[in-house]
Amino acid sequence: MWLLEAEKGWERVKKIIHRLKWYIKIAFLFGKLSLQSQMEYSLNFISGVCVELAYMLIKLVYLYVVIDTGTKVGSLTSDMVILFVGTYIFMTGIWMMLSGVNNIPNAVIRGNLDLLMTKPGSLQFLQTFGKFNFAMAFPNVTVGLILIIVGWIRSGIQLNFTLVGTFLYYMLGGILLTYSFGLISSLLVFWVTSMHAVYNMYAALWDYNNMPMELYPKAIKRIGTFVIPIFLVTNWQGMAVLGKLSGLELVWGIVFPVAVFLFSRILWKKGMKRYISANG
To answer: Which of the listed residues 162, 196, 255, 258 has the most CB atoms within 10 Å of its CB?
Structure first.
């Protein structure tokens, strides 16, 4: 009997893996099509990159001041701050790349989801991964990765499997949170009349990660960790490899991203029940 149950369980696992591979393949195809469509108007792509680079320079001014003065941020040295700022910039690039998530309010208002509903596959997947904004993402992801590497080396963090694996794991958690938080804020279009205030509030919360959480008072750190856990997006990676997280905080960084993703999935289903197509 137990052999039969094990075989059934293994078959279910293989189906899940096969479906996951299919979604990953389709996501790469969507990305390729998005890049090709953006490169059709190369001047627009280049101008978008240049504009984002200009904003990048403003972000880097703060980092330059910290490095030049050797200022410590809480228990973090100026070299460690480079790692945190790099993670923040990288995650900002991921957020900007997910144009399908950010475009949900327009798709709902204009009834653009009607066409996607007729296609095979998950509607949430088709909407959120159907388009990517590489012009906005490229400068942030590139500069972010460079700063992460530089910060890692200058901070004297060992380059071993455990620390690199820990950093990458919490980086994946940060990407999952970036997707989930963006999805939740966009889905509020089903319950609020104006998304302007929602986006302004979310952008303000996001900018709290512009510098490490060690900069803020203890009360703000607690709120940003357990009440409105925005700090988990860009701080947990560096804090984990530097050994500055408690056991509870390490577990919280594992459990919370999955919980938020599941909540965003539930919110998506509830929102779709409220969706009224262009055909009524």
So the answer is: 258
Residue type, 96: M
d(CA 5, CA 9): 6
CA 147 to CA 169: how far, in whole Å?
18
For residue 249, what pLDDT is reported?
Answer: 93
Query: Quick check: is 110 in a domain?
Result: yes
Identify whether 6 is part of a domain.
Answer: no
pTM score > 0.70 for this model?
A: yes
Asked, for residue 2, whether it belongs to a domain, the answer is no
- Using DSSP's 3-state secondary structure scheme, residue 214 falls into helix
Between 140 and 198, the more confident residue is 140
Helices within the chain (DSSP H only): 2-39, 42-69, 78-97, 99-102, 104-110, 113-117, 123-128, 134-154, 161-187, 196-206, 218-222, 236-241, 247-274
* Structural domain harbouring 244: 11-274
